[in-house]
């Protein structure tokens, strides 16, 4: 699983000479699905959907001149009877890999008994792998807003969402990394994620109103501040 970053109080590549810009009045999210289809072997079932969400500054007066200011990478894992999350995880690379129906390594009954909370017979799980915002636009709360929007769009039909809050941009000293992880945890908690196991945070999409969380994340309109 990847390591999401966000627009917290500071960025790994921010520093002298990098000034922050004022908050944009709107953003545009462009969704792209990467799907590999073998023309030699029988295509896999399609357990793994790889999505990239590009974040652009919305410029109504110049729609053809939108600026790319960040991205999010998400994975939708579609499980079926006899297929668990462990089946889709490459033990060598740690990446998610698709498999054919005949390549499952998990017995259905054993899988169901092992962990009914996370790996059931038929369900979908959304994994937020990475999220990056250009340093000049950080500090405006865009990270959790983008995450919430992407989860609402791609999490339809998913039971759970998962992320691993940790910086991925540069190596850090142990203490600095721990502080960064704590700060990112507070950011993802605003979307509804809660600590689960081994640094992984989970979001129950059946019990959490992500749309309500998004409304709380959005900046208030001037008339609402009066």
Overview in brief:
It is built from six helices and seven strands; from the N terminus they run E-E-E-H-H-E-H-E-H-E-E-H-H.
Tag the structure with descriptive keywords:
226 residues; Aminopeptidase; 7-stranded mixed sheet; globular
Structure, explained:
By secondary structure, the protein is an alpha+beta fold. The chain has one domain (27-225): Gcn5-related N-acetyltransferase (GNAT) (Aminopeptidase). The protein contains six helices and seven strands; from the N terminus they run βββααβαβαββαα. It has helices spanning 85-88, 108-114, 142-154, 174-189, 210-217, 222-225; strands at 27-34, 48-57, 68-79, 123-133, 160-163, 194-197, 200-204. A seven-stranded mixed beta sheet has the order 1-2-3-4-5-7-6, covered by helices on one side. Helix 3 (142-154) runs antiparallel to helix 5. The protein is globular. The termini are far apart. Mean pLDDT is 77; it is low at 8-18 and 106-120.
CATH homologous superfamily (4th level) name = Gcn5-related N-acetyltransferase (GNAT)
Number of strands: 7
CATH topology: the name is Aminopeptidase
- Total domain modules: 1
Class, according to the CATH hierarchy?
A: Alpha Beta
Cα distance, first to last residue? Answer: 44 Å
Kindly report the oligomeric state of this protein.
single chain
């Amino acid at each position: 699983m990847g390591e999401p970053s966000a627009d917290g109080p500071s960025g790994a590549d921010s520093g002298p000479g990098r000034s922050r810009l004022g908050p944009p009045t709107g953003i545009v999210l462009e969704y792209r699905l990467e799907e590999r289809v073998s023309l030699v072997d029988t295509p896999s079932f399609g357990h793994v959907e790889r999505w990239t969400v590009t974040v652009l500054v919305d410029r109504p007066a110049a729609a053809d001149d939108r600026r790319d200011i960040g991205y999010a990478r998400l994975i939708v894992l579609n499980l079926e009877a006899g297929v668990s999350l462990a089946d889709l995880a490459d033990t060598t690379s740690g990446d998610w890999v698709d498999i054919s129906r005949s390549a499952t390594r998990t017995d259905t009954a054993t899988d169901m008994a092992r962990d009914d909370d996370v790996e059931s017979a038929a369900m979908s799980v959304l994994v937020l792998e990475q999220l990056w915002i250009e340093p000049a636009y950080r500090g405006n709360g865009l990270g959790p807003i983008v995450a919430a929007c992407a989860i609402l769009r791609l999490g339809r039909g998913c039971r759970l969402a998962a992320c691993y809050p940790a910086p991925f941009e540069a190596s850090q000293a142990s203490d600095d990394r721990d502080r960064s992880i704590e700060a990112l945890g507070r950011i993802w908690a605003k979307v509804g994620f809660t600590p689960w196991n081994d640094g992984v945070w989970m979001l129950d999409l059946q019990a959490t109103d992500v749309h309500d969380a998004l409304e709380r994340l959005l900046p208030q309109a001037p008339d609402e501040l009066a």
